[in-house]
Design a protein that fits this description.
With 157 residues, the chain is an alpha/beta fold. The longest helix has 38 residues.
Length: 157
């Protein structure tokens, strides 16, 4: 009888441990999503850019295994091209995968001076009120490939 109760208790503790291990990351992700939704204006076009000192600006949430290939060839660098319409409210969720990066989109008066810290998200927003192609770049010396950290914003009519 006591042995049976210990087995049930062990099983209960195992399920509790699994619930915490699986539920905690999911809860943090849900909270993070909720938190950012409150900070981003309704109707804004949101783009995530992740800075990497070796590969430049990468679109989206980038994980370490996607940047540091151990068993496959290193992917070529591709400058991100982001397309929006004139009049759109644009929000960039800026992240750093490795070192402190900066951000500059001078044609819209956007200059990030505090830096983008690894593990933190920095929001940059502006209204796309000009039509054309505009370059954005890292404005903090971040490594030997710093001059290649560029991307293009295309604003269409």
């Amino acid at each position: 009888m006591i042995k049976r109760m210990k087995e049930r208790l062990d099983l209960l503790l195992l399920f509790l441990l699994l619930a915490v291990l699986l539920g905690l990351p999911m809860g943090i992700a849900a909270y993070d999503h909720h938190l950012w939704q409150e900070k981003i204006p309704a109707g804004a076009r949101v783009f995530t850019l992740t800075g990497d000192a070796e590969r430049g600006w990468l679109e989206g949430d980038v994980h370490a295994f996607e940047v540091k290939p151990f068993w496959r060839k290193k992917q070529p660098r591709a400058m991100p091209v982001i397309e929006v319409s004139k009049g759109d409210l644009v929000v960039f969720k800026l992240k750093s995968r490795d070192v402190v990066h900066g951000f500059s989109l001078k044609d819209f008066g956007v200059f990030l001076t505090d830096g983008i810290q690894p593990g933190r998200v920095t929001l940059v927003s502006f209204k796309a009120d000009k039509v054309g192609e505009f370059l954005f770049s890292c404005n903090a010396i971040c490594g030997k490939e710093h001059e290649k950290m560029k991307g293009k914003l295309v604003v269409k009519v």
